[in-house]
Amino acid sequence: MPQHLTTLSALPTPSLGLLGFDLEEVLAHAGPWVLGLVSLIVFIESGVLFPFLPGDSLLFTTGLLHHQLGLNLWVLLICVSVAAVLGDQVGYMLGHYFGRKLFSEHGRVLNYANLDRAHTFFNKYGGKALVLARFVPIVRTYVPLTAGIAKYRYADFAKWNIFGALLWCILLTFAGVWLGNVTWIRENVDLIVVVLVLVSVIPIGLEVMRERKKAQKREAAAKDDSAGGPAA
Fold it and tell me: Residue ranges per domain, the chain?
């Protein structure tokens, strides 16, 4: 067995559970194609309408194992960042030129319900949605498409896209580099990713609460105005 496979096999391996395969094993057996495989998955998951790929776990695990996989960390970061940016570009272009034609009422993945949720998310947060969505699985795949459908100004899209892609790739990859050798963290990659997602959506929750309070105040003010109006 090659040395890097022997090294990996001696380590505790986090499972991807619902995905049904061991990510470390897949990366180890990719051999010289591992960087291309990682970049391809990041590209597809970022905006090519296939959201059920291990984007967060993939970056974390690849950062953790970059030495064993024979990857230069900076080359890895450049490749996955470029892939993430280009994936969003494809999503934007698909939305811009094809829009809702890609979706159907009862589609398993490409359905109107998923699209409308992403559209609402984008309309509420604008360009910031491109950054926030990077840390929310599934949503990050649809938001670039929604930006294209909404004809969001391309210069602004490119700015937020690049910033979000760099932030996502750097944070998740370095999380694997710095924290992956902690046994508990290695064995609970999926849990860590869930926590990261929950933390990332806290600002969204706070914003929703603020908007709800504002709506309640407007509704109360409208009732007061109605009650205090001239009698018929």
Answer: 3-200
